[in-house]
Amino acid sequence: MDLMNAGITLIATIRKRKTRMRKPYWIEKEHLFDGTEYVCSRCGARFEEPWEECPACGVRMKKIKYDPVCVDEAEMLDILLGDE
Ligand SMILES: [Zn+2]
Q1: How far is the CA of 75 from the centre of ligand 1 (A)?
Q2: Which of 9, 32, 57, 68 is placed for a possible disulfide with 43 were both Cys, Cβ 3.0 to 4.6 Å?
Q3: Is the model's pLDDT at 17 over the cut of 80?
Q4: How far is the CA of 5 from the centre of ligand 1 (A)?
Q5: Is residue 4 a part of any domain in this protein?
Q6: By C-alpha distance, which of 64, 60, 66 is closest to 26?
Q7: Position 78 pLDDT exceeds 90
Q8: What is the domain extent for residue 59?
Q9: How far is the CA of 40 from the centre of ligand 1 (A)?
Q10: Separation of 57 CA from ligand 1 center, angstroms?
């Protein structure tokens, strides 16, 4: 019983630490037509450049995570041009 309680406490601690360690970052989105944009992982604001700090919410960025969206847009284009 005591061991089980200790286990539950440990899991709760790890979960809490994981949440705290989630750092803000830029999501780099490469668009088929509009070029590249950077989306703030915290507030969702979009910019053309990866600033050191988000100009919208002021959070300091640690890294850039690449998130390709070209595939979706290319697929959408296929659908748009498909029923010719
Ligand atoms: Zn932001």
Answers
A1: 29
A2: 57
A3: no
A4: 39
A5: no
A6: 64
A7: no
A8: 23-82
A9: 5
A10: 4
CB 25 within 8 A of CB 39: no
In the reported structure, the alpha carbon of residue 46 is separated from the centroid of ligand 1 by a whole-number distance in angstroms of 8
pLDDT of residue 56: 97
Interval 20-68: pLDDT, tens = 557 899 999 887 777 899 999 999 999 999 999 999 999 999 999 988 7
47 located within any domain: yes
CA of 83 to the centre of ligand 1 (A): 40
Contacts within 8 Å (CB) and 24+ apart, 30-39: 30/66, 30/68, 30/69, 30/70, 31/69, 31/70, 31/73, 32/70, 32/73, 32/74, 32/77, 33/73, 38/64
- Output the CA 70–ligand 1 centroid distance in Å: 23
* Domain count within the chain: 1
50 within a domain of the structure (yes/no): yes
Q: Is 64 among the domain residues?
A: yes
